[in-house]
Structure formats: C-alpha cells, structure tokens
NUDIX hydrolase (Lentzea kristufekii), 176 residues
Amino acid sequence: MSALHAGDPASFATDVLDEGPPELEHVPGVASRRPTKTCAGGALIRDSAGRVLFVVPTYKAVLDIPGGMTEDDESPKAAAQREIQEELGLSAALGPLLVVDWTPRNGVWSDCHQFVFDGGVVDGAVACDPELEGVLYLTLDDAKPRIYPSLHRRLTLALAALESGSTRYAEFGREV
C-alpha cells in the first residue's frame, strides 16, 4: 500500500494527475497563516470475547488504541495500518470508518481530527514496538479509569457504529 493512499496506488496516482498542477497562492502568505491541524488514525480491535484491544504506551500515562498520528501526505487509514504493523506486527486490512472525532488543543498537542476504523477481531495480539510496554484486552468499563474520558466516549460511539453500520461524527467524543 502507498503511504499516500491505502487503496489502489495506480488509481490514486491518476487522481492526483487529473487534479492538475499544484495550486498556487493568489495572495502570497495566505496559506502559511492557516492553522495546522493534526490528524490521527486508529483501530477498534476486539478479541473473540468482545473486549477492546488497548496499547500500553511508554510515553504517556494512559492507555490508547492501536494507531497514531499521520505523517505528511499520509491518509488516516494508511497511518492506522502503518502504526498497527509497527506496534503489533499485524498487517491490518481495516474495515469501515466508525468515528470521526475532533479533539481540542490539549497542552502541547494541537487540535486533532481522529479517525477510528474497524480493526476486526484479533485474539492474542502482542506488542512488538519499544514505544509500548504491552497490550491489554479490556471492556470499556474496565478501561474507563485508565483512558481519557474523551477516548471512552469515542470508543462507545465506535462500538455503536459497528453495531448499526453507520459512521458517527463527534466533537471531543460527543456525537453531534
């Protein structure tokens, strides 16, 4: 898969060419004054008992789901797939988008668009990244004291989206 696009790289390259030459600024400096948002892609992975897979990062005090921040010219889905490969050693064929969530600035972190994809069922996943202490399979209730409240809300929406087949849009984990 291309880092630019998780779908067919040949079609993506054609789409880029069809778009025409890169857009130029009509008023110099306008683009550089625009805010820079970050973007992250993650996966809701469950085990056969229905528990959610959480990673235990070494660089923060809370649990998270597999995934991470996008790199330049990388889609959220491609970022999630890359991070799952790095973190868990799994080649993830991610399913549909479950949640798009906007989170506000938090300390050193700028506001962010967070995409959660269906990661399917994986039993016995293990951490294979030095940035992780390990992985845990937990119910959302068991995970609640160990994750940010916004992630708990986001994952609650992701499970509802998985059940309904309908993508959810949220702001700080609250559906709007």
In short: Residues 123 and 158 are 19 Å apart (CA to CA). The helical segments are 9-18, 76-88, 140-143, 149-164.
